[in-house]
């Protein structure tokens, strides 16, 4: 347990010392939300989105970004790099098991995603008065299932990618898909209905987050889909993951 704690400290320092990881992973979603809110028209209520302000409607999409940028880009690339550089192989000759490094990476990246999401919620509330999630329990369940599904997919990429370059390519495709269906590139009310419906089932499940944010209990089927994705991707990743 002591060695795991030390590993978590080391991995956390490495995460924070990387300027791109720190800025993009932790700060970019908040910067996007604050930047959009600086446009006066986006702080006005619109009938196109049920009388909400765009800045309120878009907040869950920045949560999608906060989770995706770390779980789908940072985590798999770091683990693939460790494998490619022989870090995991060399750890087998030490008292620290490679699985502990894997767990340390998961802890650091999940905490970073949580911090990024909380920063989005807090900054939106303080700067623009964005309402807090109106269905807290539903939001918590949707967020936890969504982040678990995203990180399971990230681990699957890390498991199958032979090199860091391959991991970057695969994770970029998944990240762009998550951002598109999550309403980051184009607001969900502007997407075709079929695309928006698909987005409800693409991790981390932006529709469930949006429903809970506005006070509606998330639908059960998308939540079940998030859980099934997490279980399936996690099981496959555990089975095919190679330490060298």
From TrEMBL:
Membrane topology listed for this record: Multi-pass membrane protein
Transmembrane feature ranges: 21-42, 62-82, 102-127, 139-160, 167-186, 219-241
Classification via PROSITE patterns: ABC_TM2
Biological source species: Glycomyces algeriensis
Compartment(s): Cell membrane; Membrane
Protein name: Transport permease protein
ABC transmembrane type-2 domain boundaries: 20-244
Keyword Membrane (UniProt): yes
């Amino acid at each position: 347990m002591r060695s795991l704690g030390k590993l978590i400290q080391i991995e956390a320092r490495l995460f924070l010392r990387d300027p791109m990881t720190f800025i993009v992973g932790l700060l970019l979603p908040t910067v996007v939300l604050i930047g959009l809110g600086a446009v006066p028209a986006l702080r006005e209520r619109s009938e196109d989105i049920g009388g909400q302000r765009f800045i309120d409607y878009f907040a869950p999409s920045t949560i999608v970004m906060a989770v995706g940028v770390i779980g789908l880009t940072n985590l798999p690339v770091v683990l693939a790099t460790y494998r490619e550089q022989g870090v995991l192989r060399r750890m087998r000759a030490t008292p620290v098991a490679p699985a502990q490094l894997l767990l340390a990476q998961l802890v650091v990246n999940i905490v970073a995603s949580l911090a990024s999401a909380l920063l989005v919620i807090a900054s939106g509330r303080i700067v623009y008065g964005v309402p807090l999630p109106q269905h807290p329990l539903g939001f918590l369940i949707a967020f936890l299932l969504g982040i678990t599904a995203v990180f399971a997919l990230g681990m699957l990429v890390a498991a199958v990618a032979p090199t860091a370059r391959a991991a970057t390519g695969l994770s970029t495709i998944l990240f762009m898909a998550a951002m598109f269906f999550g309403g980051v590139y184009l607001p969900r009310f502007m997407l075709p209905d079929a695309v928006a419906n698909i987005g409800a089932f693409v991790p981390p499940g932006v529709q469930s987050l949006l429903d809970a944010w506005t006070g509606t209990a998330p639908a059960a089927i998308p939540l079940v889909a998030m859980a099934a994705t997490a279980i399936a991707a996690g099981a496959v990743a555990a089975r095919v993951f190679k330490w060298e």
